[in-house]
Amino acid sequence: MKHLILGFSAAGANAAETLRRQDSQAEITVLNGENRPFYLRLDLEGIFHGKGAEQLMPRPPEYWEERGIRVVPGRAARVNPARHEVHIESGGTLHYDRLLIAVGSAPRDLTVPGRGLDGIFHYHTLGDALAIHALRERVRRAVIVGGGILGLELAHAAHAFGWEIVILVRGGHVGSPIVDASGSALVLASLERAGVKVIFRDEVAAFEGREKHVTAIRTKSGRILECDFAGICAGVVPDVGFLEGSGLLEDGQLIVNERLQTSAPDVFAAGDCAVVHATDGRLIPCRNWNVASAQARVAAANMSGADSVWTEGVLYNLDYLFGQEFALIGPWADRHLPERALHEFPAENSYRALVTHEGILESALLLGDRSADRRLRKLIAAGAVVENRLPQVLDTNIPLENLLKF
Ligand SMILES: Cc1cc2nc3c(=O)[nH]c(=O)nc-3n(C[C@H](O)[C@H](O)[C@H](O)COP(=O)(O)OP(=O)(O)OC[C@H]3O[C@@H](n4cnc5c(N)ncnc54)[C@H](O)[C@@H]3O)c2cc1C
Questions:
Q1: How far is the CA of 127 from the centre of ligand 1 (A)?
Q2: I need a labelling partner for 336 at 20 to 30 A (CA). Which of 1, 178, 291, 304 fits?
Q3: CA 108 / ligand 1 centre spacing (Å)
Q4: Which atom, in ligand 1's list, is nearest to the CA of 6?
């Protein structure tokens, strides 16, 4: 059996390892779209704290060859499912019996005048992080476009480098989509304490420059923000443009079933590039390292002939919003759906919120205080009915068993 994997990150690398475990004889080829060995994208911030690139690489380069996994540099330009062929951008064609598309997401770009100037960066790849880190002694003033997780992560690093920072936010609060307006106050307070200026409800109209280097951002409202560094952290989009015309996209989306299978029976997809159409009708995107890895393991098992189903489980994500630790438990993004109730518990140094669906605890956000983390995970997994007992849910002095009884 000839397996071909497009993309060599969380989904691609996990799929290759799973395929090898399932079948010692299978031919496994991975098309690596980046000129680096497999690395932990979720740990990129480590580069800003002085980690070397190799410390982000969980496997030595020879690991793959030793397991008979062929890693080929290049990017797929076109897929032809009828002929079982993938055309590579630099020329050449790869053939497959089973294909896994694991090309992830790409940073959303800004198509405004001056975008081609030097000094304007995305924060998405190891190459980006190394290039930004190399500038730490040279930059004085930075504008970071976007106040979401990645924008705040970059601002946190830039603050440690000693740069003067402005964050330009299109919406009305920082930390979106993790925190809503009420929860973002805590994050804004830590930004203010650090001397970071935040501008809300404004956008980039153009980058201005001198001698090919960015010197300022002109905003739609007419502000001129002087800078010698601009970081674009405006979200990500599934990197599936090269699949146009392949018949695999539906309204521009790469939709798979719970077996991670696309509309073509021998083509699977996993990770940030895919959207799972669950049997309950929901369309579930992936924006998380562990989910991408888990989906890849299921896809790889099915590519080897198994009949595995990916289930969402209790999602869990731990990260920081400008130094404020947060935990997300359960389908937090669903909190705005009908029939959900959001219960907020703001305090001086923390913000906690619980979401119930018809009285059942469905998801939670813990920002600044994670003491209830483990019990919340158990309650959400158990589908505990918590209506009228919400303060007890967060009170770690109350035994968990009392809350699981109903
Ligand atoms: C800076 C940063 C920090 C993050 N922090 C966290 C975190 O703390 N926790 C967390 O859970 N998640 C985090 N994430 C998200 C997480 O990294 C992603 O959810 C995860 O990497 C998705 O894995 P993936 O394999 O689906 O795709 P990706 O990691 O996006 O990798 C896809 C790979 O495919 C390649 N590719 C693209 N197109 C082609 C093509 N046509 N042909 C061949 N190859 C191609 C790309 O170059 C890339 O190497 C972070 C993301 C970023 C950018």
A1: 13
A2: 291
A3: 13
A4: 43
Q: List pLDDT tens digits, range 31-76.
A: 999 999 999 999 999 999 999 999 999 999 899 999 999 999 999 9
CA distance 257 to 275: 9
Ligand 1 centroid distance, CA of 379 (Å): 30
- Cα 5 to Cα 300: distance, rounded to the nearest angstrom: 10
pLDDT at 280 (0 to 100): 87
Predicted local confidence at residue 287, as pLDDT: 87
Query: What residues does CATH 3.30.390.30 cover in the chain?
Result: 316-404
Mutate which of 42, 94, 293, 297 for ligand 1 pocket (most atoms within 8 A of beta carbon): 42
For 316-404, CATH gives 3.30.390.30
Residue nearest to atom 28 of ligand 1 (CA): 104
* Whole-structure pTM value: 0.95
CATH number of 2-106+237-303: 3.50.50.60
Q: Which residues line ligand 1 (CB under 6 A)?
A: 6-12, 31, 33-34, 41-42, 44, 75-76, 102-105, 123-124, 150, 239, 242, 271-272, 287-290, 292, 317, 319
pLDDT per position as a tens digit, 73-101 = 999 999 999 999 999 999 999 999 999 99
Q: Measured in angstroms, how far is the CA atom of residue 375 from the centroid of ligand 1? A: 30
Mean pLDDT computed over 325-331: 94
Residue 365 Cα, ligand 1 centroid: separation in angstroms? 23
For the chain, residues classed under CATH 3.50.50.60 are 2-106+237-303, 120-234
